[in-house]
Design brief:
44% helix; single chain; six-stranded parallel β-sheet; five-stranded parallel β-sheet; 24 helices; alpha/beta; 578 residues
């Protein structure tokens, strides 16, 4: 089946590139005759309906069968086809397919200067401290109380699990989806419920809003003004919200903007200052918002990030879950937001292999059952690939009991990937050159969030011009070179101790039983890297919470004097974690 799919796509590419694309009806008739011999199927009623539809819509079909369409379907949306093509005995590889494409489709290209710029940015935002904050010089005594709300539970559990380990005492009230009893037990964390709030979410957010020309769905606020009014009315009544020193948000990031309004309205400090806000976002900064709403939010983020907290009202600290999201936010707002890698401490699970089977992460393309295909390829082996969504025991401990895991990414950042990595499970991921094909249809790379605040564009530096592919399009209109710039920012391309593959043959070879010692080495190294990342993350969040709490309480701290201060340089022994 996949051989036929590749053959058809290559035929379409060749015909289109030569300008000889036939009309759809004739092409279907010819192909059916070749497959059916006498062509009797052409006279069947279903086929006559298909041919009639092709005749009726010939002009619209021809419009879509142009080279951009071919590029999307052959190289991008067909990434599973390409992955298998790399594994076949055919003398064809990804670079050969790229070479067939016209220059206009390939430009701008990805070169060494673009790669260097991408790596430099990722390293820089991964080393940033909390912007405009530093820890209170007099210390923050007592308890730091936090109220956090998120529509994605793990985006709140991530910082909560780090805060529970800090030497300062943090007490948090968390409003998260799902039954409160199902969330992990974390020191100092109380899960609160609010039927009224979730009713607001159900009514106020369209979870099936059409994006990308109808090819996908992503949540969108129906009426931001109405939603804002209800949000600001409901939240102060929730347990822990009124008494919080710091307000926090997860998904979506614009909740932080609403929380800042809430903090400013209900300040309560002796000098009338409002409560500070911190956000940890794992989706695009402008998710859930229309274009006009995004532009307003981006302008607010830029203004608040450049102002002294004492001059601009309560501080707003936004933290990206990955360098990719930080880069997107920079492109959108002009602000370099810090990136703190998720560690998944809330799983409380460590690598403990109890089976030879290999875990396979969730797929979002229903037309390809990669697990089935790969199991067909390893018939006779004493192990098999297991789809993570098919496990009877879906606990994190069950994940950690597998010998290794294969990550088929559909986003530049997936919390499942970070959870598996931090457990110490040996991870096999696609080679960096293939990542753009997997990220192409991700919700994190949609065109709907490709808007820049008025008056802002990414500048060239004083001593060099930007490489052509740098800071280009991350969505379906982008060239392969531009998409590679964005893919290089992903932790799937950056984290050490990952086992990379560019073909099924390489994948199966690395998972052979005789190569188990190599898997164990990768596991031990990943655990060491995770410990170094934890040290950095704990230091970041300690400075952030102490600085925000000190600002709220009016303590004599360096938080009000610092402006975009970086943390101390990372010790050399920790550099490998970056």
């Amino acid at each position: 089946g996949w051989l036929t799919a590749v053959s058809c796509q290559l035929q379409v590419l060749r015909d289109s590139a030569s300008g000889a694309w036939p009309n759809a009806e004739s092409w279907v008739r010819r192909r059916v005759r070749e497959a059916d011999g006498d062509g009797s199927i052409l006279s069947s009623e279903p086929m006559q309906q298909v041919l009639g539809a092709l005749r009726q819509h010939r002009s619209s079909i021809a419009k879509h069968f142009d080279l951009p369409w071919i590029l999307k379907n052959l190289l991008y949306a067909g990434h599973r086809t390409m992955a298998l093509l790399e594994s076949s005995g055919w003398p064809l590889r990804l670079e050969h397919i790229e070479a067939l494409l016209p220059e206009a489709v390939q430009e701008p290209r990805f070169d060494w200067a673009t790669a260097k710029l991408s790596r430099e940015f990722a390293a820089r935002v991964s080393g940033l401290g909390p912007l405009g904050l530093s820890a209170a010089v007099s210390g923050v005594g007592g308890v730091v109380r936090v109220f956090i709300v998120s529509l994605h539970a793990t985006l709140a559990l991530e910082p909560l699990s780090i805060w529970a380990t800090l030497p300062l005492r943090v007490e948090a009230s968390a409003l998260l989806p799902g039954a409160t009893a199902r969330h992990p037990v974390l020191a100092g964390v109380e899960y609160v419920s609010s039927p009224a709030f979730w009713a607001l979410i159900e009514v106020g957010i369209d979870t099936k809003h059409s994006i990308d020309g109808g090819m996908g769905r992503f949540p969108r606020v129906r009426d931001l003004a109405d939603f804002r009014a209800s949000f600001l009315r409901l939240l102060p009544e929730l347990p822990g919200a009124a008494a919080a020193d710091v307000l926090a948000c997860g998904e979506p990031a614009f909740f932080c903007g609403l929380l800042r309004e809430l903090g400013a309205e209900r300040g309560g400090g002796d000098d009338g200052r409002g409560r500070p806000v911190v956000g940890f976002f794992g989706n695009p900064l402008g998710a859930y918002l229309s274009k006009e709403e995004q532009l307003s939010f981006y302008s607010s983020v830029a203004a608040l990030s450049s102002a002294e907290p004492s001059a601009g009202g309560p501080p707003l600290l936004l933290v990206a879950a990955s360098p990719t999201l930080a880069a997107q936010a920079y492109w959108q707002t002009g602000v370099e937001l810090p990136s703190v890698r998720p560690l998944g401490l809330y799983t409380s699970s460590r690598y403990d292999p109890q089976t030879l089977d290999v875990l396979f992460t969730k797929q979002v393309m229903p037309l390809w059952d990669f697990t089935c295909i790969l199991n067909f390829a390893i018939r006779g082996e004493p192990w098999q690939f297991v789809d993570i969504t098919h496990l009877e025991d879906k606990s994190w401990a069950s994940w950690a009991s597998h010998r290794a895991a294969v990550v088929i990414p559909y986003e530049p950042q997936q919390l499942t990937f970070y959870e598996l990595y931090s457990m110490g499970i040996p991870l096999l991921v696609p080679a960096e050159s293939m990542l753009p094909l997997f990220f192409f249809s991700s919700y994190g790379n949609v065109r709907e969030v490709a808007h820049q605040r008025p008056g802002w564009t990414v500048p060239s530096s004083s001593h060099r011009k930007l490489p052509p592919a740098a800071w280009g399009r991350w969505h379906k209109e982008g060239s392969l070179g531009e998409l590679r710039f964005w893919a290089a920012l992903s932790d799937l391309a950056r984290l050490p101790h990952l086992l990379r593959w560019s073909s099924v043959a390489e994948l199966v070879l690395q998972l052979a039983i005789e190569n188990t010692p190599r898997l164990e080495i990768a596991s031990r190294a990943a655990k060491r890297g995770t410990q170094a990342a934890f040290d950095r993350s704990a230091g970041f969040w300690r400075v952030a919470l102490e600085g925000l709490a000190a600002w709220w309480r009016g303590l004599p701290s360096s938080a009000e004097k610092a402006s975009r201060k970086r943390m101390r340089p990372i010790p050399p022994e920790h550099c490998h974690a970056l």
